[in-house]
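pls design
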């Protein structure tokens, strides 16, 4: 068990213990009653904190991808229709995840849907929010921890700088976890989508299979009960643990982006814990809904409650127009 994994375990226990509070969308932590700064001052402060920091640990969660245009997961909207039209017209799913839960009648159609889903994220360009964040971090020593599976961060950065602790869409694993291997999903997915055209199913012989047991493959992602937590998974935790421990005595800024109420244990609460225990750590969260700053952190951090895409754009503009007083 490594350092960050251990932190997640602790917060998971906390989550179970106080489950009704979390389930109601709240938190068992005592929150600050300080009034937030006006929005413009919050942006200035965000930029200053980034400038002053020796290093930044970014925690990128679902709200970041949603803000950047990846809004097809939970609704039947234009972007969902753009990628999933044949399925949307036939089944009227409320977004990409709803289709994943559908009791598909054939494996060929199930894989048609799954391939469409994976292809959509694999081939999506890097979205504006990510580019704005990238500009904000320019010249900084930083590391990214993410629960997003949509490959946005690895399109921008080398894998050594990114820990994807919930898996991601470029890899397959054995659906039955018979082996610790993961393998490329990009090529097989492109082939499936190619052959499918405007239909909703793929040919039987394109169903991806485990090279060891011959059973079906599955994307290497958490959320469906068979997430392979082997070597590759351990490596993700080792990367974030190493980075955090190496920088614990420096001016480290924990920048949390878009953590929802379902999973505070992977980014949010470990960041709170680390900010509290490291002497020079600072914490900033950006969230479009939840104003959660623990009272214990009120002098070390800030929460900006606003649209994440807007915040990152405004911060980038402010950084660019500043007097660069470094
Ligand atoms: Zn297998």
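designed seq:
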């Amino acid at each position: 068990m490594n350092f960050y994994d251990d932190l997640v375990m602790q917060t998971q226990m906390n989550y179970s213990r106080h489950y009704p509070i979390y389930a109601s969308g709240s938190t068992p932590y005592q929150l600050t009653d300080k009034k937030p700064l006006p929005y413009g001052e919050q942006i200035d402060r965000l930029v200053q904190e980034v400038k002053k920091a020796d290093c930044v640990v970014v925690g990128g969660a679902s709200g970041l991808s949603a803000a950047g245009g990846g809004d097809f997961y939970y609704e039947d909207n234009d972007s969902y229709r753009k990628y999933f039209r044949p399925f949307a017209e036939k089944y009227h799913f409320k977004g990409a995840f709803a289709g994943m839960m559908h009791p598909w009648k054939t494996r060929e159609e199930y894989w048609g849907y799954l391939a469409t889903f994976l292809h959509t994220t694999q081939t999506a360009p890097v979205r504006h929010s990510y580019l704005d964040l990238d500009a904000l971090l320019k010249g900084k020593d930083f590391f990214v921890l993410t629960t997003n599976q949509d490959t946005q961060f690895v399109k921008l950065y080398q894998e050594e700088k990114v820990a994807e602790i919930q898996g991601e869409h470029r890899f397959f694993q054995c659906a039955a976890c018979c082996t610790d291997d993961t393998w490329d999903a990009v090529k097989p997915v492109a082939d499936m989508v190619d052959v499918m055209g405007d239909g909703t199913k793929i040919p039987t012989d394109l169903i991806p299979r485990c090279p060891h047991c011959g059973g079906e493959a599955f994307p290497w992602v958490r959320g469906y009960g068979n997430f392979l937590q082997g070597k590759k998974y351990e490596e993700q935790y080792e990367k974030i643990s190493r980075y955090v421990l190496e920088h614990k005595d420096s001016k480290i800024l924990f920048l949390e982006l878009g953590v929802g109420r379902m999973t505070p244990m992977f980014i949010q609460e470990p960041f709170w814990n680390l900010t509290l225990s490291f002497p020079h750590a600072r914490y900033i969260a950006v969230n479009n809904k939840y104003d959660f700053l623990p009272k214990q952190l009120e002098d070390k951090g800030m929460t900006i409650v606003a649209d994440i895409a807007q915040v990152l754009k405004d911060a980038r503009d402010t950084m660019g127009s500043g007097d660069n007083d470094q």
